[in-house]
Amino acid sequence: MKRLMILALICLAFLGMSNRVYAQGEAAVPFLLLAPDSRAGGIGESGSGLADNSAAIFWNPAGIAFLTGSEVSITHSNWLPQFNLDLFYDFLTYRQYIDDLGGSITSSITYMNFGEFVKTGEIDPTPLGTFRSFDAALTVGYATKLHSDWGIGFNFRLIHSRLSDQKVGQEEGSGTATSVSFDVAGMWRPEHLYLPLLGDIGNQLSIGMNLSNIGPKIYYIDQAQADPIPTNFRLGIAARLFEDDYNSLTYTCDFSKLLVDKADSTNSGDRAEFYEALITAWADDPISEELRDIVTSMGLEYWYGNMEHDKFMFAIRTGFFYEDPSFGNRKFMTFGAGIRYDMYGFDFSYITTDLFEGGENHPLSDTLRFTLLIGWGGSPMSSRGFPRGI
Fold it and tell me: Fewest Cβ atoms nearer than 10 Å: which of 11, 167, 211, 230?
């Protein structure tokens, strides 16, 4: 039982130490909420409005509807470095535009390794062996355009969590759990949009919405002790602030809310079903608290170069992530950079909490992500309009 408690505490640390963790703590498999890629990680973990690479399968799969060609990427991060534990996170993505389908098929594999644990008896502490714990998810999806300005995307996900390799004591469960979920997303990215004083800002603004991890509860022991998976609503915008042939500056901003039933019940089986929580999670607290429960993240991304002429570009990024002190209290700055050469790309991002009171030695501080990607067959990335692929 001790090893399960340790893993539960680690899971809570993914989302930050909180004075009031009823929403975060009551959602199982929180690895599904972790920002997976370095590019969005560098702009404050705000990617649902931009969503123009294969990592959009996490942020907003509808963004992939505006892409052509193919792309594969892999991200690696040693997670919670302040804990000095064997924790790491990997995220593999693939997208492929298929003309006969009128859109793109997508897939991703998410893997969170919790490390190796020593197996002991319930009373006798004598080591009986070791086992590894992990969470993993396989996602497949499809994205297409409804109109030149509108895209939609759908994902289906198989989730597997292994906290232990066998049951604990007299409990019925085995320490492993499996469930499924799906995502529904939309994106508006107008080709032409005339505004007073600004003129035509077509292809310089996008607004995206993603409702992710919709699915049944997951349980390790029995159905009566099931916990909801972290259903999440995310709304984001991306706006091109400046551009010329070799320079561009983009602003991104996301608002997200965890849609988990917060019923104060000793029996988690009494909580609302996932489809009920989509509604009740917006109204189970006074409106002032519901608004404070929304997480805000934003960032700036600057690109220099022109892929059409030079086949080379580089980017610098920064961002800010804010969560209300009563609802998680995560506050951090992010920084990042990236390069593109022909069909290849590399990004990294860095989190620091040291700039905020009480942020010293926070478990999220000094987290690094690294992403390698290859894209081919699509429109080359340029400084004109939103990047289309890489």
Answer: 167
